[in-house]
Every structure is written in structure tokens, then in C-alpha cells.
Amino acid sequence: MFDIGLSKMALIGAVALVVIGPEKLPRVARMVGTMLGRAQRYVADVKAEVNRSMELDELRKMKDTVESAARDVESSIRTQASDLEKDWNEATKDLQGDAQMTAASSFDSYGSDGDTQSSVVPAYKHPRKNWRLKRGSVPQWYKARSGVRTRVQSGAARVARFRPQKFR
């Protein structure tokens, strides 16, 4: 900060000793030390705040560039998806037209009561296990021995149940 050497500090101390006096010099030196410490902390806080604001600005710029890149990628994907969807629709229209023509010709060959009726098959449903049945299959004596609660009890009732006899 300042270019103060040992000789300059000795000169300042001698002048302070003459001007302030030996009785007040320790108290003034402590006050000057605390003021310098506060000033250094203030300067350090200002530097940290400036660094934080610079980093924040850099992060905002980086965020903007990433967002713009993401928007560009999203727009290109959307355009490619719409092109693909158009191509798919055109291809399926051609296939549907061919399928309708072949279906109409095959329907005419079978007649009105043909064997081409499709049967509806229900979706598979997983047989779930009933956990209440499993819990009920454990014997009551085993539940009591292992400490499984079988009856619901409120917190106040539980405290009253386990309270020592001298407090009842």
C-alpha cells in the first residue's frame, strides 16, 4: 500500500511520542491499529465484491451463450422433426392407400360372414399379492414376541402406559 520503511516508522513513532505523550501513546497505537485493520478489511471486502460482480457478469455472458446455443439446437431439431413428420405422413398415406385397396379386394373374396373378424384380447394384468394376507398369516404369539404392534395406540396413551408407577 504505502512505501514505509523501518526508518520512516521510527521517525513517525518518535514524533508521536513527543506530540501525544507517553501516557496516551499505547491507547492511540491500539486505536490506529484497529482503524488500519478495519480499513484493510473494508478494502478486502470491496475487492471481493468487485471480483464477485465480475464473475457474475462472466457467468451471465456464459449463460446467455449457452441459452442461445440451446435455442439454436432446439430450433434445428424442431425443423428436422417437422420435416421427418411430413415425410412420415406422406409415406403412411401411400401405404394406407395401398392397404385399403388390398383390404377391399380381400373382403370381397371372403364375403360378409368371413373368418377375418379380429377377437379382442384383454391386456395382461399382474396378479398382485395381498400384503394384508401375508401379515395375517404370522401367528399372534410370534408378533408379540418380536415386538410387532398389532393395535394402534396414540402417543399420549403410549406415554401413559409406560409411565413409572410413582407418577400415576
UniProtKB/TrEMBL annotation:
UniProt keyword GTP-binding, yes or no: no
Membrane topology designation: Single-pass membrane protein
Family matches, as Pfam families: TatA_B_E
Assigned protein family: Belongs to the TatB family.
Subunit text: The Tat system comprises two distinct complexes: a TatABC complex, containing multiple copies of TatA, TatB and TatC subunits, and a separate TatA complex, containing only TatA subunits. Substrates initially bind to the TatABC complex, which probably triggers association of the separate TatA complex to form the active translocon.
Known function: Part of the twin-arginine translocation (Tat) system that transports large folded proteins containing a characteristic twin-arginine motif in their signal peptide across membranes. Together with TatC, TatB is part of a receptor directly interacting with Tat signal peptides. TatB may form an oligomeric binding site that transiently accommodates folded Tat precursor proteins before their translocation.
NCBIfam families per UniProt: tatB
PANTHER family documented for this protein: SEC-INDEPENDENT PROTEIN TRANSLOCASE PROTEIN TATA, CHLOROPLASTIC
Name the UniProt record assigns to this protein: Sec-independent protein translocase protein TatB
